[in-house]
Predict the structure.
Amino acid sequence: MSTGAIIQARTSSTRLPQKVLKELPYGSGITVLQQVIRRARRSTRIDKVIVATTTDPDDDKIVTIAQKEGVPCFRGSKENVLERYFLAAREHRLDTIVRITSDCPCIDASIIDSIISQHFDSGADYSSNSLVRTFPHGVDTEVLSFAALEAAHKGGTRDYEREHVCPFIYKSHPEKFKILSVVAPQELHRPDIRVTLDTEEDYALLCAVYDCLYTQNTDFDAEELVDLFKNKPWLELINRKVLQKRFLSSVEAEIDEALKLIELQDLKKAKEIFQAIVGRS
C-alpha cells in the first residue's frame, strides 16, 4: 500500500501571482513551496511527496524547485486540477492520496500523520480536517483513497468539481462515500487563525510567524503556532479583513460572497444599488 502526498502548485495565482515563489523566511532564499515540501516530507506516514503543476511554461520554475528538493513533479492541466491529481496519483501508483496545497507553509506533519491514521482506522474513503473549521486555517489536510479519487474523476462534470479536486466526494455525492470529518483537539481549536497565503496581508503575517518561530525551530508545529497567537494576539490584525477564497457552486452563493466584499469595504450606496439589481432587499 503506497501513500503519497500530492502538492498542487502553480505560479498564476489571481490574487497574489507567484506567491509560492516568495521567500519564507523573508530574505532567506527559501521559497514558500520549498517549505511546504520540506514540512510534508517530515510525515512518517507518507511514502512519497509529489508536486503537481501545470504544463504552462511559467510553471517551469515549479519543476526546478521540485528537482532541487529531490521530489518528482507531474505536469498536467492548468484548470482541471482534479484530472491533474488523478493522473499524478495513477502515474505514481498511489493507493492513498494526501492532498496538500502549496499555499500552506505551516502545514504540520503530526496533523498529517494523525489524519492518515484516523483515515485507515475508520475505513473512510475520504477524510478531512477542513469540512468543519476547527483547526487554524492553513494546516488543512485531505486524505482519500485512489478509488474515491477515480470516482470523482469519472463522475465530476461541474466546473467546481474539476477545479477543486474533492467537492464531488463531500459536496455533490457524500452519500456514495464514507466520509470522516476530523476535529481539532482542544489545544489546537483556533479556527480564527489564518496562516495560508492568498494576499499580501497573508504574506506579511507569515513572515512575522516565521521570524518568531522558524529561527527557533525549523520544524515548528501547530501547537507552537497557536501558542504564538496566544502570546501575540495582535498578529491576527494583519490579515483579519482577508476573505478566504472558496469555490461557489451557484449564482446565489456568488451574490452572497459579492455582498460580503461590498460590506467589508463599507460601500453602503454600492450595496443598495447591487441589491436592487439582483433583487435583494
